[in-house]
Amino acid sequence: MSLIIGSASLLVFTACGAGKVDGESGLKVVVTTTILGDVVRNVVGADATVEVLVPSGADPHDYRASSRQVAGINEANLVVSIGLGLEGTLTDVLRAAEMDGTNLLEIGPLLDPISLGNGLDPHVWLDPKRMAEAARLIAEEMTRIDASIDWSSRAEGYAIELDITNTEIESILEAVPRDSKKLVTNHDALGYFAAVYGFEIVGTVIPGGSTLGAPSSEELGQLVRAIEEESVTAIFAETTKPSALAEAVAAEVGHEIEVVELYTGSLGEPGSGADTLIGMLLANAELIAAALG
């Protein structure tokens, strides 16, 4: 595990500023999130500059691009986003750039997204197998831009690392008893995790797949009752949002329950152990296993 995390981390630590890598080819790729930044870097290596729009620790649902970032989007050879409504206010900026001729790759709709409410769930990066496919799709797009570089070999190597990560997550989660595989989350971000690893979503503090919703007192009361009925022992909050509301729900529950922060919308800071996608997925699995096992 440490070798995998270490190799991916080396790619991240070549970055400078807000997520840039010195590219030798003059190619520039702009991505919306730190998570996509890590995936793209594993594909492009030193052959393209990678710029991340949403900084580490920020919530992609409500992030607003600066004028400098908008200019960077329009200058990029490729822009990679999740889509499916994840990027919130950035969506209009990306759509406008696409209409002006920017090459935009929305990765979420291409990864067999699952349903969420009346739409589709954008949180595809919490399934390592889907992100292995994402790497391949990015490599295909980069090949259209510059076929002189073997992007596909890097993507396949990274896909193998993600497949190994999936196996490691399954092993970590064996510590969770079957009747304890019940999740209460800050917002509906763990749908893919639950589907892949056999968990049940009991409820969410904020309704829906965005962090921008506002639960009613009735909805919070229903959540407290569901937690008590299902004997849930943890509420999983997020590093990108204050956990005060989750703490308030926990305070109303009639049994002992802890609030645990997961990495959902952003990678962790350098040195956190969650500063690559692989590190983030493993860190989340460890946190969930410790809380529910």
Which CATH class of the largest domain is shown?
Answer: Alpha Beta
Sum up the overall morphology in one term. globular
Distance between the termini: 21 Å
Structural class: alpha/beta
Spatial extent as radius of gyration:
19 Å
What ranges have pLDDT less than 50 throughout 5 or more consecutive residues?
A: 1-22
Helix content: 40-55%
Reported CATH architecture of the largest domain: 3-Layer(aba) Sandwich
The tally of strands reads 10
Strand order of the largest sheet: 2-1-3-4
CATH topology of the largest domain: Rossmann fold
Q: Note the run of SSEs as H and E.
A: HEHEHEHEEEHHEHEHEHEH
CATH homologous group name of the largest domain: Nitrogenase molybdenum iron protein domain
Average pLDDT, to the nearest integer? Answer: 89
Domains, number: 2
Q: Note the beta-strand portion.
A: 5-15%
Describe the fold and architecture.
- The protein is of the alpha/beta class and 293 residues long.
- Helix content is 44%, strand content 13%.
- Residues 1-22 have low confidence and may be disordered.
